[in-house]
Design a protein that fits this description.
257 residues, alpha/beta, Rossmann fold, globular
Length: 257
């Protein structure tokens, strides 16, 4: 997709997201959006397209690091539940509790008992989340093997993207089919009527982002909230003084551009 057409379509969708967030605030709605997928599937770029024009007070991103020693002793879902939305909030999970069904299982960071227990209990936990009035949207970004290799290789030499390439990514790289089997098992166990999975083809980043935003807007049945037109009041000239002259002698950043 050509950049100009993409940016035009993206702007329209982002304007709708701004309307949607006003409805979420107005209604006190609570939403969780879970982004999962293979390495380089485009989760970060899609989340950025989703959140870059909206309020961070409504849209909160939860991208949790590896659990601390204390968190390892907690109930598995505990650290995720702490990030759940209050009224009028949308929490976007950049990876989520499904780490246990993916990387933790494939890389041996959890026991077979913990893995099987998660797959068994997860649908019930999500049923409780939805039953509590939280809307749960689960998205799986699926990138092809050839495109993943192209993106991963590009990260090696690009100084702007090298930070995305972690030692764990390198360790996970040879395990394509292990991750495929883990994905299939996860979908089989947790793709439920009350919390369904939606799969997004993401080989083309631009169309994937547009398709994803379109889908999210359809999932949240918002209506435009009427707002009074803002009229700026007249500035007071009382106690007027030269407020720029008073900055003389202060440290200014050099204007190199």
């Amino acid at each position: 997709m050509k950049r100009k057409a993409y940016e035009k379509a993206l702007r329209k969708l982002q304007a709708k997201l701004c309307l949607m967030q006003e409805w979420v605030k107005h209604k006190g709605h609570r939403v969780i959006i879970v982004f999962e997928g293979r390495d380089t599937a485009g989760k970060g770029g899609t989340i950025r397209a989703l959140t870059e024009r909206v309020s961070p007070r409504v849209f909160r991103i939860a991208a949790l690091p590896a659990p601390s020693d204390r968190e390892k002793t907690e109930m598995y879902m505990q650290r995720y539940i702490r990030r759940f939305p209050a009224a009028g909030e949308i929490v976007v999970f950049d990876r989520s509790w499904y780490n246990r069904a993916g990387i933790e299982h494939v890389m041996g960071f959890c026991s077979t008992e913990q893995y099987e227990g998660f797959l068994k209990l997860c649908p019930d936990v999500e049923k409780m989340i939805v039953g509590n009035g939280i809307q749960l949207i689960k998205l799986w970004l699926e990138v092809g093997q050839a495109e993943q290799e192209r993106r991963m290789t590009a990260r090696i030499d690009d100084p702007l993207r090298q930070w995305k390439l972690s030692p764990m990514d390198v360790e996970s790289w040879p395990r394509w089919y292990d991750y495929s089997r883990a994905r299939d098992r996860m979908l089989e166990a947790t793709d439920t009527k009350h919390a369904p999975w939606y799969i997004l083809r993401s080989d083309d980043k631009r169309t994937a982002r547009l398709n994803c935003l379109t889908h999210i807007l359809k999932q949240i049945p918002y209506k435009e909230v009427r707002r009074d037109k803002v009229k700026l009041p007249k500035r007071s000239t009382k106690h007027r003084y030269d407020d720029q002259a008073s900055l003389k002698g202060r440290r200014f950043i050099a204007e190199k551009y």
